[in-house]
Amino acid sequence: MANGEGTLPADRRGHTPQRGNNSAVTAARLVCPEIPQRIWAPDTYGQSFFLVDCAGKAAELRRPDQAARAFLRAHPTVHYQL
């Protein structure tokens, strides 16, 4: 990755405060696949941390509700209130 974006979580520059619940966190959770916590931080499993892989998702992150609705249309058995 250019500019070292892939190293952000490892060196804490990409750390998001635990309180979350802002529009950036919401967009990331709607659009990007979550990496299981037991893979990247097994000693904190069960706590409310999360890591998402947003590589190549810039357009979807600009309009997370549209991306979420498209996902729900493609997966009609998934129920999620937007």
Bulk shape: globular
Count of the domains: 1
Q: DSSP strand (E) fraction?
A: under 5%
The radius of gyration is 14 Å
**Overall average pLDDT:** 75
Q: Distance N terminus to C terminus?
A: 32 Å
Uncertain segments: 1-17
Strand order of the largest sheet: 1-2
**Topology as a string of helices (H) and strands (E):** HHEHEHH
Helix and strand composition category: mainly alpha
Helix content: 40-55%
Largest sheet: 2 strands, antiparallel
Keywords:
single chain, 82 residues, mainly alpha, two-stranded antiparallel sheet, 5 helices, 40% helix, globular, disordered N terminus
Structural commentary:
- The protein has 82 residues and is mainly alpha-helical.
- It has one domain (23-82).
- It contains five helices and two strands.
- The protein has helices at 8-11, 23-31, 37-40, 58-62, 64-74; strands at 34-35, 51-52.
- A two-stranded antiparallel sheet has the order 1-2.
- Mean pLDDT is 75; it is low at 1-17.
